[in-house]
## 1
Amino acid sequence: MVKSANFSADGQRIVTISDHKIARVWNFSGKQLAELRHPSQDRISSASFSPDGQRIVTASGDARVWDLSGNLLTELKRDRDPVHSASFSPDGQRIFTVSWNNNVRMWDLSGNLLAELTNRWCADYGIVRSASFSPDGQRIVTALGNKVACVWDFSKQLVVVLKGHQNREVNSASFSPDGQRIVTASDDNTARVWDLSGKQLTLLQGHLEPVKSASFSPDGQRIITASEDKTARIWRVEGLDVLLARGCDWLKDYLATHREARERLKVCKRK
C-alpha cells in the first residue's frame, strides 16, 4: 500500500513510502532507482526531497537523510517522543521534524538541534501530523488530526484555519511552489486545494480509500496523491490566473449588459 509520494524539485523523480518500512525512489517512467531502509522498528511515516533534489529525509521514530543512491548521510537523534514527519526548509539547509507530542524541531544537515518549538499549535484540533513551510519561509502549514489544517506566519501567529474535510483526519498539507495555494489530503478520500484566505479552490475526488499525502509538482501544474487504495495519482490543476481568466470569460456576456457588476469586478477589466 502506497502511503506517501513526493516529487523531486526537477519533477523527474518521485519518492514513495509503503507499509514495509522502506522508501523507494522512482523516475517519472516508473522505474525504481533506489530503496531506503530504516533499521527502526517503526514504519516510515514521511519521505521528501531536498530543494536541490539531491537528498531525501525520512521519518520513522527518528529522522534520517539519504543520498539518491540510498546511502545514509545523517541521522537525527531520536527525540523523547518519536518523530512522524520530517522535511527540508526552503533553502535546504535545515530540517524540520514533528513529533507525536506536537513538538516541532529544527536541525542542521549534520544532525545538530538548532531550535525547538513546543507551542501546541491549533491544540483544539488534535495532533500535528505534518508541518510544511512556504517557499519564502514566512509561513508554515500544519495538518491536524481533527478535520483541519492551520496556516501560521513565521512569528507563530495563526493566520487561517482550513475547514472543509468531512469530519475526518487531515494527513498532510503543503504549499504550491509559488506559495499562493495549499493542498491537503484527508481520510475523507479526497485532496483539496485552498487559497491563503482559506477558500477552497479545487476538490480532487477519485480515490476509494483515505488519501495519506498530496503535494504539488515543481511547476505547480500537477498534484500527486497517495492513498490507502494502493494507488498514487497525478492530477492536473490550473493556476489562479487561469481560473480567473476562465471565470471572466464565462461572465463576459453578463458583464456586457450589467454595468454595475462590471464596475465591481474590476479584476476582469485587466483580462
## 2
Amino acid sequence: MYIRRAPHLRLRSIFRLKSAPHLRLLYIMRLVSLKAIWLAPWVASRLRHAFLNQAFKFWNSIRIFATL
C-alpha cells in the first residue's frame, strides 16, 4: 500500500494500467475525487461569495431605481 501511494510511482502505475483502460479510468477518477474533496469547501465559498456579490449588486440597483 505504501508503494502504491508513493508520488514518483504514480505515473508508472498509470502507464502500467494502459493495458486495462477501465482500471486506469477508475484510478484517475479516484485521484480526481480525492482532489475534489479537498477543493470542495474552497469552491463552495467562492461560489457563495460570487452569488452574494451579484445579489447585493442587484439589490443596490433596485434601491437606486426606487430612489429616482
